[in-house]
Design goal:
single chain; about 525 residues; mainly alpha; Fumarase C, Chain B, domain 1; Fumarase C, Chain A, domain 2; three-stranded antiparallel β-sheet; 19 helices; about 5% strand; elongated
């Protein structure tokens, strides 16, 4: 892949995804010349402050409630090491490698802006680790999302000084051992560097970027699954008419309706306009309104995380104007803008799962689909349970999502002797979102299976040569490559897993052409 050049201002979500899921060194991560100049200038300013003996938070003082404890010049380096070893208290399972790489990249890009006082060599060591595949072991839990993601970022930074553990070449090992194998040496931190590495929103931002891109893929898949269900249920596309949506001009509702029309174009499985059954249940008729609202939440999340990717989020910040050096304490580390976006996205994703589960119910409930399809999508009901319990699983996941959709951002708990007295819980919001999206992927996989089964029953009535929509036909064929028509009860979970992989990989959306 083309190298990613960090300058602190132009990193994109697509580059984060490429670096997260790429192999170490492909793409190569580098600093721009201008970023290098800014970083060196900022580090020199920190040294000037030390030489002047000026008081600056986190440079010549303690942290948090210890902000008024002055640190001697002799202890400045020890102070920076101490912040890493004392703050690395995360718990839980480690982040996967893709998320870890995204965290490292985002943190490096923030530092590349040149307002954090880190030395070029220290920042380069973080990039060396990325490029050589020395991945810190970062526990998922422990961040409050204000004063940044302190605990997880401390775990991220430990290997820079030869502490902690990493995954390297498929093995978990002590950081010092991995650095030696990779041809790197530990760094002795200078003033401000420990704080610069740990104080920021890189963890919740990484979660947000990766899960927003995932949600975009899920959104398209939900539209496709909804259209396949509509065809299986002999629904009508009249509710997607552009004239309806022009009168309620939410842009993404309009976009969704247009996409549904494109998917269903040419379908012989939809009801004719002349039918006396003039409208469908809400789960079919209101897809543009519900999925369109989810698209709004996804668009908001992308807007927020595109800003945050190139924001400076540590504290204090160093401003240089001529010979004047200012060290300003503020709150850019506070994750509230991200936490709210993550919670909003989880709410929207849960709704995509809710409406999909109700479509599965309609596919499997003979009474609800006006006997278009047999009960539980099986011909010999009683002897066979058919798709009955698949709907149970979808219902269980949808119900779990309702619990997970409770916002983390409205919770706060004071810390650091009530100095840090309002927090965002942004990482908690991100981890909840990740679970919601995983559940929705499973629900959509079940819907796709059920819709394909329903379409096969309809083909028995209207003819095997009947055409699906231009967008739904290739998806139906893709599903049938993994899942046969289920004539009698058999193990279903392998098929669920196979279709789930199609959903997660984006193959479903790709097959439909968007």
């Amino acid at each position: 892949m083309e190298a990613i050049i960090l300058d602190g201002e132009h990193l994109t979500m697509e580059q984060v995804v490429a670096a997260a899921f790429g192999q170490p060194g492909d793409p190569v991560i580098q600093l721009s010349q201008e970023a290098q100049r800014r970083v060196e200038r900022s580090a020199a300013a920190v040294q000037t402050l030390l030489e002047r003996g000026e008081i600056a938070y986190g440079i010549t003082t303690g942290f948090g409630a210890f902000k008024d404890r002055l640190i001697s010049r002799a202890d400045v380096e020890k102070l920076q090491r101490n912040i890493l070893v004392s703050h690395a208290v995360g718990v839980g399972v480690p982040y996967d490698i893709a998320t870890t790489r995204a965290i490292m990249l985002i943190r490096a890009n923030t530092l590349a802006r040149g307002y954090s006082g880190i030395r070029l060599g220290t920042l380069q060591r973080l990039l060396d680790m990325l490029n050589l595949g020395v991945h810190p072991v970062i526990p998922e839990k422990g961040s409050l999302g204000a004063s940044g993601d302190l605990a997880p970022l401390a775990h991220m930074a430990l290997p820079v000084i030869g502490e902690g553990e990493v995954l390297y070449q498929g093995q978990q090992m002590a950081s010092a051992q991995a650095l030696q194998r990779a041809g790197l040496e530990p760094i002795t931190l200078a003033a401000k560097e420990g704080l610069a590495l740990t104080n920021g929103t890189a963890v919740m931002c990484a979660l947000g970027v990766l899960e927003t891109v995932r949600a975009e893929r899920i959104s398209h898949t939900a539209d496709i699954a909804g259209c396949l269900s509509l065809e299986a249920l002999h629904g009508t596309a009249l509710a997607f008419d552009a004239r309806i949506h022009a009168l309620r001009p939410f842009p993404r509702q309009i976009d969704c309706a247009a996409y549904l029309r494109k998917l269903l174009d040419g379908s012989e499985f939809t009801r004719e306009p002349s039918s006396t059954d003039i409208q469908d249940a809400y789960t079919l008729r209101c897809i543009p309104q519900v999925h369109g609202a989810a698209r709004d939440a996804i668009a908001y999340a992308r807007w927020a995380f595109e800003i945050e990717l190139n924001a400076v989020t540590d504290n204090p910040l160093i401003f240089i104007e001529g010979d004047q050096i200012s060290v300003l304490s503020g709150g850019n580390f506070h994750g509230e803008p991200l936490a709210i976006a993550l919670d909003y996205l989880a709410l929207a994703a849960a709704e995509m799962g809710n409406i999909a589960e109700r479509r599965i119910m309609r596919l499997t409930d003979e009474a609800s689909n006006t006997q278009t399809l047999p009960a539980f999508l099986t011909q010999q009901g009683g002897l066979n349970s058919g798709f009955m319990i698949l709907q149970y699983t979808a219902a269980a996941l949808a119900s779990e999502n309702k619990v997970l959709a409770h916002p983390a951002s409205v919770d706060t708990i004071p810390t650091s002797a009530n100095v840090e007295d309002h927090v965002s819980m942004g990482v908690t919001a991100g981890l909840k979102l990740r679970q919601v999206l995983e559940n929705v992927e499973c629900i959509l996989a079940i819907e796709l299976m059920a819709a394909a089964q329903g379409i096969d029953f309809r083909k028995q009535r209207i003819g095997a040569e009947a055409r699906l929509g231009k967008g739904t036909e290739p998806v139906y064929q893709l599903i049938r490559q993994q899942v046969p028509f289920i004539e009698e009860d058999r193990l279903l979970y392998p098929y669920m897993n196979a279709v789930g992989e199609l959903v997660k990989s984006g193959a479903v959306a790709e097959a439909a052409g968007g």
